[in-house]
Amino acid sequence: MELNADFKEQITIHSEQLEWIPSPMQGVDRRMLDRIGGEVARATSIVRYAKGSKFSAHTHTGGEEFIVLDGVFQDEHGDFPEGTYVRNPPTTSHTPGSDEGCTIFVKLWQFDPDDRNQFRKTMAEELATPIDGVATAHLHSDAFEVVTYHHLDAGAALSKSDVGGTEMLVIHGTVTHGADTLDKGAWLRLPEGDALHVTAGKDGAKIWIKTGHLAHAKAPVTK
């Protein structure tokens, strides 16, 4: 399966307008944003766990990173409440689920193959002192990518022109990008060479951004 697999194109998706698609595991549904592959895929998705649902134990051969958007995500490593950012690099394994239900934004098979840096962070606790109405948290960086989280006050502007492409998820509030208004759940992917310029709406905004990674995008390696 290929979905939004041309990384030279700009993609904007208002994810909350998409239908939920059942996964192979009962009680776990997803909204697909981009994908290369079948059930083993380089994928970016919004995933919803119903109350009491769980996935079977599995190993992330290509790595997994996710943000808990609501509820509490759980596995044998602990409880991960709303606002948690998690990186599970290649070779890690777990049995994910949620007693009370949750929604996560998740990316699969998008790691440096040699990355072994596993961690979790409460994103809001990483925020630095605001500058011109923008508070920034640096969540992760390596030779392949930079991952950040931002709180924008009403009317505050943020620009990025990093090489290697840009991806943004609106977690709360609204931002404008060009002629587009992006509200909660909106996902924007810009190809290398396109700069990001956003301005927060009247209620401000909380956004997650990754840059640099699209230059390395490829299908998962399966055996």
TrEMBL record:
**Which SUPFAM superfamilies did the record assign?**
RmlC-like cupins (SSF51182)
Question: Which InterPro entries does the UniProt entry name for this protein?
Answer: ChrR-like_cupin_dom, RmlC-like_jellyroll, RmlC_Cupin_sf
Domain (ChrR-like cupin): residue spans on this chain = 9-111
What this protein is called in its record is ChrR-like cupin domain-containing protein
What species was this sequence derived from? Sulfitobacter undariae
